[in-house]
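Morning!

This is the sequence you dropped in the shared folder:
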Amino acid sequence: MDKLGGRLEVPLFYVITENGLILEERIPLKAPLNILELKVDTRRRFVEFRVKSPLSGMNRYRLYYEEPRALETYLKRLTEQRS
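The structure's back. Tokens below.
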């Protein structure tokens, strides 16, 4: 996990919408997400990803979810460019 780099944030709650993610009702991550690396830990039930943001540089986020593979699928959909 250390190889992901960047500051790690673990939000207590988050909302996934078709327009992106909202972390703790204060940090918006707009789609399409620029996810550089993604790691899924099914045993500990989280998805950790690294994004590059123009405002804050490099950040890592760890999102806990009962079904991390499903969360991975949602996040991958948010990385796709919309036409």
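Headline: Helices lie at 68-79.

More detail when I'm at my desk.
O.
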